Amino acid sequence: MDSTIRHIPSPQPKRVCTVIPSWNGRHLLEPCLAGLARQRFRDFEIVVVDNGSTDGTRVWLEQAWPEVRIISLPRNLGFSAAVNAGILAGRSPLVALLNNDAVPEPDWLAALVEAAERHPDAGIIASKVLLDRDGLIDSAGIGFHRYGWAFQHACEQPETPDSNTPGNVFGACAAAALYRRDLFDRIGLFDEAFFAYYEDVDICFRAQIAGVPCWYEPRARAIHRRGASSSRMPDFILRLQYRNSWYVLVKNLPAYCILKGLLMLLMGQVFMFQNACRKGHLRVYVASFSEMLSALPRLLQARRRIQEHRGDPRRIDALLDCTLPGKVRRCQAWLRKIAA
């Protein structure tokens, strides 16, 4: 990241610094910022990090939203670098991340801050993120499966009493979430090597390893237009998703969990390979795996730092989900068909 963006003067800090990364997203920012303007909680500032946009985002923001602080990056450095720039530019004790394609409901920030006050041990507060169609859920917090991948709780399901029940979860979807600034002081910022995708899983995993839980607050609601930016470059996004899922495992999964769940992890990798073959993604899958192998020395170095401060690994193991997903059942059927 360009070091010139790390020392931007900040006004008297508000309670919350709301950071919005944006890349050629001028058309998305209007409803997002309008949603923030309607917030019941008012003690916050807005920082938009423009990721090298070429659609006139900065000029438009300066004219239409002069109260918004703008950080301009020289090129698209990815989600992780953008949110890190926004975090470093502020001094607020709480940092809210919001995608430019997400629109918060009026009580979103109030509910997040109130949850942070009620649960001082939680370093991350997860929102309920709803899809912008059919009233279905996009995320009710992140889980992590013993098969070796992360998932969004209640994804593409209607709202139920379970999804409306607050409680501890593995992690938060960074499309709409709240973080304590001192958590970043303790475990570091988002890993910029991820560029985008799974960076929120990585930081939640690191927080859990450090003994800092995540709380899910369903009263904090945001509407997400999923894929509004990423749909413009599908192969690139697919490569990041494959690669970064391995980054998370190599960096964070304790050896105890690997040994205990080795067969399930292997089954998960077989499923990923089968899925790539079935969808015609084998070339992207192989390129992603090769890229992960090239990054292995750096990942193992990061792993040593992370695991040095790990407590009882059985606590992490207890957080992992062990239900049998439908996609694994489909993979098992595929393997039986091959063996027949």
Structural overview:
By secondary structure, this protein is an alpha/beta fold. The chain contains 13 helices and 12 strands. α7 packs across α10 (282-294). Residues 1-9 have low confidence and may be disordered.
Structure keywords:
disordered N terminus, 12 strands, Spore Coat Polysaccharide Biosynthesis Protein SpsA, Chain A, globular, alpha/beta, 340 residues
Chain-wise SSE layout:
Blueprint: E1 16-22, H1 26-37, E2 44-51, H2 57-64, E3 69-73, H3 79-89, E4 94-98, E5 102-104, H4 108-118, E6 124-131, E7 137-139, E8 142-144, E9 150-152, E10 167-169, E11 176-180, H5 181-187, H6 199-209, E12 214-224, H7 234-252, H8 255-260, H9 262-278, H10 282-294, H11 296-308, H12 313-319, H13 326-339
Helix pairs in contact: 6-7, 7-10, 7-11, 9-13
Strand content: 15-25%
Give me the secondary-structure category: alpha/beta
Oligomer: single chain
So, CATH architecture of the largest domain? Alpha-Beta Complex
Secondary structure: helix percent:
40-55%
Q: Could you tell me the mean pLDDT?
A: 92
Distance between the termini: 53 Å
Gist of the model:
The protein has 340 residues and is α/β, with parallel strands linked by helices. Helix content is 44%, strand content 19%.
